Amino acid sequence: MKKFAPLLLILILISCNAQTKPNDIPIKEEVINYTFETVVSGINNPWGMTWLPDGTMLVTEKSGIIYQIKNGIKTEVKNVPSVYNRGQGGLLDIVLHPKYPENGWIYITYASTDGEGEGGNTKLIRAKLEGDSLTQIETLYKANPNSTKGQHFGSRIVFDNQGYLYFSIGERGSHFVNPQDITRDCGKIYRLNDDGSIPKDNPFVGQAGAKEAIYSYGHRNPQGLAINPITGAIWEHEHGPQGGDEINLIKKGANYGWPVVTYGIDYDGTTISKENEKPGIEKPIFYWLPSIAPSGMTFVTSDKYPEWKGHLLVGSLKFQYLELVKLNGDEIIGRQKIATNIGRLRNVKQGPDGFIYMGVEGKGIVKIIPN
After folding, report:
1. Alpha-carbon distance 324 to 163, whole Å?
2. Between these two residues, 341 and 10, which has the higher pLDDT value?
3. Which of 7, 46, 268, 328 places its Cα 20 to 30 Å from the Cα of 233?
4. Is residue 21 classed as helix, strand or coil in its secondary structure?
């Protein structure tokens, strides 16, 4: 038996090493056991979506419109702030306060010209909806300085199980300046109390010069945030450069590496970093090579999709499909295409009715009906 021990050890080491690559999971072709229903058309870039208690859907259109949608009819919400509609910037995410029936607060991120310098940067507000108009608009956070660059505004919003508000802002294309510097906005995940105040236990509170709203840093362009319904952990995905889109578990005060480490290269083929891991920097739990350009993510908890329940859905802008990311706890164990060739998929959400809704550029809102 002893003479087989070295061979057994080698096989174990090979097996362990084979499991260390978080992108080494091939994607399966779709199994079509569903149909599509267009909920509403005529929305060019449906960025964010949420639902009021009566089932009315609120959808943000990047150009600066919020639609109320009920029974397939869309109407425009009035008194929406002016947005800086440039490149990837515009009207972005929208969510309800967890206690919306009690307080009526709606939270919105968008690119705004307010603040320092020319151009715009990401802003977080809250407001109330009275009839068909936003009222009581309050600014909770505005990233500075502004920039005329058109890339990497983020931005998604999520509340955790303790009632803290998290939102993301991309590094605005200044990757050698913003994401690693906690005295500067951009390339960060932020955490606030629901009124915009800064929690006393945020990781950089009291640190000289730091932006105390920062919760994690070293991000590129996070366009997915979701709360794991089982663990309560915050899951995030972000665009890499050419290759290296990531899924991360967000931890307090953690550095996620951009651009010190990356699994991708620049769009002109040049090297951004020769390292894809480094001590003190959080590794992604998964990364895509090639990039899929992820946007939107949701955990499936609905019984309407038994084969998807307990797993994660991520939209692909680049390859125009919805990706089912299969999970075993915090480990990604499989991938499958859904809704192949649906179009540039900007967002995906599970609605309060248990159905999955997709925001598709140039099409509008599409619901997945399981067979």
Report:
1. 28
2. 341
3. 46
4. coil
